[in-house]
Prior knowledge:
- By secondary structure, this protein is an alpha+beta fold.
- Among the domains are: 5-34; 109-248, Photosynthetic Reaction Center, Chain H, domain 2 (Alpha-Beta Complex), CATH 3.90.50.10.
- Helix content is 16%, strand content 22%.
- The protein has helices at 12-34, 229-245; strands at residues 5-7, 10-11, 62-65, 71-74, 86-88, 97-99, 130-132, 152-154, 160-170, 175-183, 188-192, 197-199, 204-206.
- The strands form four sheets. Strands 7, 8, 9, 10, 11, 12 and 13 form a seven-stranded mixed sheet that branches. Strands 1-2 form a two-stranded antiparallel sheet.
- The chain is globular.
Amino acid sequence: MVHASSIGHLDVAQFAIWAFWLFFACLVWYLRQEDRREGYPLVNDATGKMKDRGFLYIPEAKTFRMPDGSNVQAPTCKGDDRPVNGTQFDTFPGAPIEPNGNPLAAGVGPGSWNVRPDVTAKTLEGQNLVAPLRVATHFAVPAQQKSPVGFKVIGADGKSAGTVKDLWVDRGESQVRYFELALDAGGVILAPVCFVDVYRGKKIVKINALTSSQFAGVPKTRTSDSVTMQEEEKIAAYFGAGTLYATPDRAEPFL
């Protein structure tokens, strides 16, 4: 007769369950280390000093090979040395920050942005990942839907800001990423698709994040047919800031 007992009253089932719990604990520890490769150690809001990295959760640096052949190490444990362009109301952690100067370009709150490589993202074939339809000619608006190109652009104040000049697509995801707008005040900008509402029946697009006069301040791209990852970050931040700071009443409480 075969016995499951191994050492006294410790049997195979107990070995299995304890082995599972040990494996699970190690897995959780590993995952908690890996999700701290960016953004850590934290910075104390009150003092502005970086907290001690400790020894338990923040892993040692690992080298990652990027698609373009470059190497990136993480974590670097280097803080963001950019000065905060805002005034904190109080000294307790998490106290509100009031932007200095133009709140749409201050880079705080919903308008904050991260430092990213100032180069264009590429597809596996080496093409620019995000490109206008005039360049990515194998993409098109479906025949059953009217293209918004040529539609009027209306801001949060109900006034015209310009017209839709082109659409920019993500070649990897096969979806629209930006609306290219020709402004009434002159110049061309990109508007992230998540801020755009299209009304095909009225032949207008509405962007409630900004008033008509604020579109001129949207960060521009260096070239007319490409956008870098850093430019994308700043463009999205400008529109994000508008959701809270475009008009004074947006920053006030609802009640």
